[in-house]
Amino acid sequence: MIRLTNIRDFWSGIVLGLLGLVECIGAFQMPFGSLDQPDDGFMPLWVGAVMLVLSALLTLRSLGQGPVSVTEPPFWLESKSPIRIACILGAMSVYLIVFEGIGFALATFVLLVFLLRTIDPVPWRFSLLMGLSVTAFCVLLFQVWLQVQLPMGWLSGWRMGPWIF
Amino acid sequence: MDILSNVVNGLLVSLEPSNLFFCFIGCLFGTLIGVLPGLGPLAAIAFLLPITYYIPVIPAMIMLAGIYYGAMYGGSTTSILVNIPGEAASCVTCIDGYQMARQGRAGAALGIAAIGSFAAGTFGVFVLMVLAPPLARFSLRFGPPEYAALLLLALVIIATIGSRDRVKAFLMLASGAALGMIGPDPVSGNARFSLGVRELYDGVGIAPLAIGLFGVSEVLLNAEIILKQEVMKTSFKDMLPTLRDYRASWAAIVRGSGLGFFIGILPGGNPIVASFLSYGLEKKLSSHPERFGQGAIEGVAGPESANNSATSGAFIPLLSMGVPNNAVMALMLGAMMIHGVVPGPQLIDKTPQLFWGVIVSMYIGNIMLLALNLPLIGLWVQLLRVPYRLLFPVILMFCLVGVYAINYSIFEMFLVVLFGTAGYLLRKVDFDMAPIIMGLIIGPMIETAIRQSLMLSRGSFTIFVSRPIALILLAVTILVLANAFLKIRRLNVTSP
């Protein structure tokens, strides 16, 4: 009886196959041209088709008659792993949302302290000190040395003083 | 004589204070990246890519090259002292290097690794100087069909050599190429797959993709477990190998340098492959192969020389033909394109300062690295003691702010998070990330070459077989491809 021998490969094949299908559908909506004048959709169609074939191969390969693969390591290495990953991704997403609103310096400081305190907790005093010094270093590197216009947000009315600029 | 005058010009360029400064920064940062486990040269170059937008192209390239070969030097320190490879190419150094450290010979292992790396790096730079110009002249004969065939061969070899699972590697290449199709059509200029998003009209940037796939995903993988590492003690006093050590390892250094350079030139050949092959070669040639794995100094000298020499070799196809043969070179190509420099046969004639400046700086960088790695070993050992929990928030923040600094785009920062998450999940299910970058960069190049070829031949595919160079390259591509899929079939048949 045919059964799933590698669940990860099966789902990877399905997801990437869907992306290949999207690429093909998108390519069909563009002019294909002719062989002597290939147009916008020419190459995307080929790439999409290759993705479809390869993902089908991956999916089919994951089906077999043997037992379910037992050699695979567990998906999460520790029980707290998913919480750590969710915390990091969540913090990064919030950072992006507030980045322009509250400004680079404040957002960066909060992000650093949050990550230092939550993933593998560092003492408060050290977290605050490190957050402050890394933020200051970034301001010097990006704003002063590289002249990058980072959003100042809530601190926009506050002059950083002639000792920096 | 011609080479000599070019070398002198290159020396003048690389000795300019700003170029020397960025060479030092590259070497220092590369060593740091090599020393710290969990961050490789790919992530480091991706991480610093945004900064290169703000400096001229010559120092930018000098710095990126410094990171690449600097990481090879630094990687050995962690392998020898902690038994964790600082970066992938130093994996094999763990075997005998760590055993030497356990026997109280960490200094000799570190010393021979640094000296071997220096000798190999010097050899690599010298051969690069001699080989790159004639190869560039030869590649002037290449038209669109030859380029299409060469790029196709590069992609196929990359997917077949460097990966454990070829179907997955090809799938990642195709995914990268699909991402490369987003943005303006190379011929008509019409926006493709941009979904009405203004930021996608110019396509997916190399920086958000590389930083997401290599920087963020690396942090996510490392954040899953809390690493505790024990560091072996050593000091500069016992860093210098004995005469007996030199006698035992000089031949391994020579062989490693030659083998590494040859592997580095090949498409898909990278320092990892070079170091493993060198270890195998040394074990095979040794009259006492049983010593390997027990602390044989040749097992450190050969692979460390090979991985350094391979980094120099990798520059040949990039600088002389414009073809990157691994993901690091693809990022370097991206950095050059950002500055409007097109690497290839014309690079040596049109921008000799860049070509010779970068090459000579690699030699100067090797001297800097010797100085950085021998007397400063204590500093690197201290750095190894910095817990990852303090490093990762800083890395993440630099990833995000670095990308923002390129186009002032929050959208691109979101792309970093998106690609970081995708990269993390893909790596968890055993997909390699390097082919995606190769696909993103080489995919549109192949598209242009194929479409130009078809236009030249008025729609006839015979153009790819009627020109001798293209025919040979295509024949090799088909052979490699057939061999790869035969192996996949054989594996499928033999596996239960």
Any descriptors?
heterodimer, A: 165 residues, mainly alpha, two-stranded antiparallel sheet, 5 helices, 61% helix, flat, B: 496 residues, two-stranded antiparallel ribbon, 2 strands
Topology:
The complex is a heterodimer of chains A (about 160) and B (about 500).
Chain A: E1 3-4, H1 7-28, H2 42-61, E2 63-64, H3 81-102, H4 104-118, H5 124-145
Antiparallel strand pairs in A: 1-2
Chain B: H1 2-14, H2 17-35, H3 41-52, H4 57-82, H5 93-102, H6 106-138, H7 144-161, H8 166-180, E1 183-184, E2 191-192, H9 206-223, H10 243-265, H11 271-285, H12 298-321, H13 327-338, H14 347-350, H15 352-373, H16 377-384, H17 388-407, H18 410-428, H19 434-456, H20 463-466, H21 468-494
Antiparallel strand pairs in B: 1-2
Helix pairs in contact in B: 1-15, 2-4, 2-15, 3-4, 3-9, 3-13, 3-17, 4-5, 4-6, 4-12, 4-13, 4-15, 5-6, 5-12, 6-10, 6-12, 6-15, 7-8, 7-19, 7-21, 8-19, 9-17, 9-18, 10-11, 10-12, 11-12, 13-19, 17-18
Report on the structure:
The complex is a heterodimer of chains A (165) and B (496). Chain A is built from 5 helices and 2 strands; from the N terminus they run βααβααα. Chain A is mostly helical. Chain A has 2 domains: 62 residues; 84 residues, no CATH class. Chain A has a two-stranded antiparallel ribbon. In chain A, α1 runs antiparallel to α2 and α3 runs antiparallel to α4. Chain A is flat, with a radius of gyration of 25 Å. The C terminus of chain A is likely disordered. Chain B is mainly alpha-helical and 496 residues long. Chain B has one domain. Chain B has a two-stranded antiparallel ribbon. In chain B, α4 runs antiparallel to α6. Chains A and B meet through α1, α2, α3, α4 and α5 of A and α8, α9, α17, α18 and α19 of B.
